[in-house]
Amino acid sequence: xxxxxxxYMVILIYAIALFIMGYCVDRSDxxxxxxxxxxxxxxSLLIYFYSVNWEVSLKMGLICAFLLRLILIISEPVLSDxxxxxxxxxxxxxxxxxxxxxxxxxxxxxxxxxxxxxxxNLLEGMNSHEYFSVYPPFHQLxxxxxxxxxxxLLANILILRFLILVFEGFTFYLVYxxxxxxxxxxxxxxxxxxxxxxxxxxTGNLHFEGIVLTGLLAALYFYHKNQTKSSGISWAWAVGVxxxxxxxxxxxxxxxxxxxxxxxxxxxxFVIGVSLxxxxxxxxxxxxxxxxxxYQSSFEFNASIYxxxxxxxxxxxxxxxxxxxxxxxxxxxxxxxxxxxxKRKIQKTTELAEAIVWIFLVYLLFQTTVHPWYLIPAFGLSxxxxxxxxxxxxxxxxxxxxAYRNDLVEENAILLFxxxxxxxxxxxxxxxxxxxxxx
Length: 439
Hints:
By secondary structure, this protein is mainly α. It has a domain at 299-433. 67% of the residues lie in helices and 0% in strands. The protein has 21 helices and no strands. It has helices spanning 2-23, 30-50, 58-70, 82-94, 104-108, 117-125, 137-147, 153-181, 189-193, 196-204, 209-224, 228-241, 249-255, 258-276, 284-298, 305-313, 322-343, 349-366, 376-382, 389-396, 413-433. Helix 7 crosses helix 8.
């Protein structure tokens, strides 16, 4: 009983810190937020390391993990304003307006002569006024469901949170099942269930990378079970929510053989094609691609290799280097990924999971923009491997929020160096250890 009390005390401290982050502190108060985040991250590690001594059962751990998420249930996202665009797009669809055909300002004129305060708040809150929507149609389905709550922002947020929590439940089940099937320690589940990055970015900030992770985990689960069609549908699901999982297609081609590969490709291509069909209306696909490319060639945030290249290229590229360096880095990432794919054996589920994690790592390190929530799919999959890089990065990446201390986004070079020093240090350590040490 004494050991249980220690566990509950850690959960209580975690809950208080989470409440303060969600309701009492703005993101401009970075050092307060960061101190609370590190407290939560440390608590999650304590729960993992001492779960056996504290007699944390599966049921008890999952209940506590969900209760922590419910603390943020009625909070408005503090660290990210992306949810304004989510709700805005959903409301456009609900009103019969295609979000791929109009800029936000232009779409308002199609609603009525007099725009309500609700719509004005959505428009003023979003950070993407001059872009067509860059979210795939399947992603938009969730926005539409949230819009069914009417012109009430809290209701919209609650619906999005409920959907995300449902998929968190599926993720818990899949992580537990895969850990059991692969003979790994079940306590690894707590590294995901109590990780503050996961709680804050999914339940708190309403990002959908957790739903992408659900699809990828399901694809691996069905791969392990040799259920080709179900694996293909699951991977297509992940692609339908975010297009980034397309980059692991070469791995699937290596992993499946013969007729299984044909079935996998056939099913997944069909599902992806159906999910993208709404883009074919009028100029939707062109506008989607235009905004996607504009995003890729205009935004830079929390990058690593790109910032090094930008500094070096500054000696001869004196204007908008991202337009030149962005495509070059994407090409280098693609070449590196192909080399990774063909140098690795894919005979076991753990080998496939490990390869996917490294591909995501390469992708993230070559990107011009790396928001904290981008890590979640790779981090969740890394629990099935001996790779600790994503775990360490999930603790360090919160340093990127220091850029929002002022109204103008301004990154701190020292904090960037600390963050990526930890990441690259862990990558070097991982190679030196040659994956011989488990969590």
